[in-house]
Design a protein that fits this description.
Blueprint: E1 4-7, E2 10-13, E3 18-24, E4 34-39, E5 46-51, E6 57-59, E7 67-71, E8 77-82, E9 91-100, E10 107-111, E11 115-120
Parallel strand pairs: 2-11
Antiparallel strand pairs: 1-3, 3-8, 4-5, 4-9, 5-6, 7-8, 9-10, 9-11
């Protein structure tokens, strides 16, 4: 079982920055790919960024140039640095990881509870 806890959200003015954290209950991010999603009120969940176990990041088109993902050496925390925030970035941000449990490829999906980001205009 893996627990994920996000933090770092809050209220920020447009143009501001936030750094979100996703802390796992064990060091899983060096062996498993992860992703950040967000969900705005009344909208479907949206992929924000992906981060592979090898350290390769990809960002959603609308967010490119404004996000940076990084990971700590222990492999139990992933950070999402968000700059030049816009009101449309408002939403609840979730950390997700797919943990592969055996050589056959069986896996478990894990989600955090999310952290709220609110960007005022």
């Amino acid at each position: 079982q893996v627990n994920l806890v996000e933090s770092g959200g809050g209220l920020v003015q447009a143009g501001g920055s936030l750094r979100l954290s996703c802390v796992a209950s064990r060091s899983i991010f060096r062996r498993n790919d992860m992703a950040w999603y967000r969900q705005a009120p009344g909208k479907q969940q949206e992929l924000v960024a992906t981060f592979t176990s090898a350290g390769s990041a990809n960002y959603a088109g609308s967010l490119k140039g404004r996000l940076t993902i990084s990971r700590n050496d222990a492999g139990d925390t992933v950070y999402l640095q968000m700059n030049s925030l816009k009101p449309e970035d408002t939403g609840r941000y979730f950390c997700y990881v797919r943990v592969v449990v055996n050589v056959e490829g069986a896996y478990h999906d894990h989600w955090g509870q999310g952290t709220q980001v609110t960007v005022s205009s």
